[in-house]
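Notebook, student rotation project (T.W.).
Task set for the rotation: take a protein with a known small-molecule partner, predict the structure of the complex, and write up what can be learned from the model alone. Partner molecule chosen: zinc ion. Sequence and SMILES entered below by T.W., checked by me.
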Amino acid sequence: MKNYKNFSEDYIDLSIDYIQNQYDDLNNLLFDGKLEKIPIKLEINKNSAARIISTKEGNQPEKLNYLGISKYFKMKKSIFRDILAHEMIHVYMIQNHIKDYGGYHGIIFKKMMDEINKKGFNVTIVHTSHHSEINDLRVSKTKVGVAIMHNKDLDEYSITVIKKDVFLNTLENNEVKLRYYIKNKKQNYDIYYLLSDYYKLKIYPCIRKSDSNFYILEKDLFNEIIDNSEIIKKISV
Ligand SMILES: [Zn+2]
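Predicted structure of the complex:
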């Protein structure tokens, strides 16, 4: 295998052909050539260097629309390949209907990212101005109730998403249950109760009963959710 670090570090001149070649190359190198071809669009996007546009309607599987690459950023080849590999993990997961836990860059994403990075890449989950995803379905039609537990001793976050009316009707009950659960753990927690229509919450199943089915939540997604939600209550236990 070609050593990634020996690639030329010159800035690349983005064209559809160039991107397609890189896509095909990474497809063979990292995904056994199994990724489907998706339309590529060059765009002027100041917010992200690359993004996968997909749509999800009702119970239909998520559909890949296109890979958007921004001409706005001047990139070196290695950076571009890291960014493209990141997007291609999303392509792989959408194409294979894989649901991740812990956000768009959850457990499965990170596992694949680590495997790719062993081959000399430097794929990250951090969204900088050089990279972010924008989903077509930005805003949910209705708000949902959200409970987030932050274990301050371990700095771990977990989340559950509940139908709004159930959430509001069972808030007190839920708090009593969580306090009891935490008391047994003998660790320090913050609990956040939120109402939100933030689109990334769609990745979690919205439950209709008030049982506590918590999923791992990444810290960067926690911050995004807090910034995009209405905080109903915060308690420290
Ligand atoms: Zn991503």
